[in-house]
What we know:
single chain, 475 residues, alpha/beta, FAD/NAD(P)-binding domain, Enolase-like, domain 1, five-stranded mixed barrel, 14 helices, 22 strands
Amino acid sequence: MAKNFDVVVIGAGPGGYIAAIRAAQLGMSVACIDDWKTSDGKPAPGGTCTNVGCIPSKALLQSSEHFEQANHHFSEHGIDVKGVSLKLDTMLGRKETVVKQNNEGILYLFKKNKVTYFNGTGSFVAKVDGGWSIKVSGDKEEDLVAKNVVVATGSAPRELPGLPFDEKKVLSNDGALRIDGVPKKLGVIGAGVIGLELGSVWRRLGAEVTVLEAMPDFLPVTDQAVAKEALKVFTKQGLNIQTGVKIGEVKTTAKSITIPYTDAKGQEQSISVDRLVVSIGRVPHTEGLGVDTVGLKLDERGFVVVDEDCRTNLPNVWAVGDVVRGPMLAHKAEEEGVAVAERMAGQHGHVNFDTIPNVIYTSPEIAWVGKTEQQLKKEGVQYNTGSFPFMANGRARALGDTTGFVKILADAKSDEVLGVHIIGPSASELISEAVTIMEFRGAAEDIARICHAHPTLSESMKEAALAVDKRALNF
């Protein structure tokens, strides 16, 4: 006997579990299906973000930063630490604890909001009276009927052609989060968010890290001033970053991995490493969903085709997150999940793609929202710019972390903030003020006129806004 629901969400990552909870809050009967399990076979909702992405990577970034601070910077504060040693199994164990806490938190939220959770794989069976027939395949099979379906199946790491992941030597983000010993030499293909964050983790713990990037420019999606500063800082820290390379045929043996490549100058090069992290992007995950069974339309890259409201080509079937167009960001998926739930309830869900922040959690952190200077130049937009360095910020000096700056781009006529770019301490937290201002189409003058507490890092945002009008007070 099939179980009937107003909404069935396939996938319990950030987009899926948030969509399920919001739909339940709005009075709908909701089920959520997800096949993640812990190593001991327990349900592990949260998707890539919680299990092998955002959460565990930040746990390791924090732990490795503590290790680096103890080894290299505590003495600056008058703290003499000797004999610092690494217990990698404890560090990895802490990461797993953090992940488990998040898994359990989502299960609690499902229970609190009366969302029925099924641990297994969800797939379309057919269009039926009352909606869509959905099959749950897992330890226990279930048949569901849903008036509305939300596809939130996420994405998977892209493999290098001819080099499949074995998660022992050739690693995706999953394997790179659980290396059982610090490799002497680590190779990273791809200088994007994942490559830089995971490369930073293992460099801090003692690995010699080489990052190979096919694009000619470093971090081309960021503002050029930020990218230039980041490359300088990361290189000084010890990351060997090579851009404009062309990877040859990678060869693996029992002891090492050899990566031949042509460098930016056209010279043939080769490196040998103990482990290789491949972080060349992610692909939408629709395997096992039953796309062909019901005629769910995909585009040429495998993404589920949706309109601006996340509606698919099938009636009452929606899709959100990494499996659809737009940036592959957890918070973008969450916003889409909320918006879809509200649209199903007859409300007007809202997602503004122009104010979705981006963050790279390296040290220094990098965060931005809106347009870059190169984009504004290409579009012919007249703008003013204001920057303020953290070296002139009192709180940054007290923290002992004065790397980087805040940069604000504002329309030359209206002063509306068009983009904000930060590299420096707590950039991931500071960017929220910029997002808020831009969501309300505020001006640089608005930021400049707001009283910011002293001493705080946020004063750098105020000073950058003042600098747009060439009247910074502390620089």
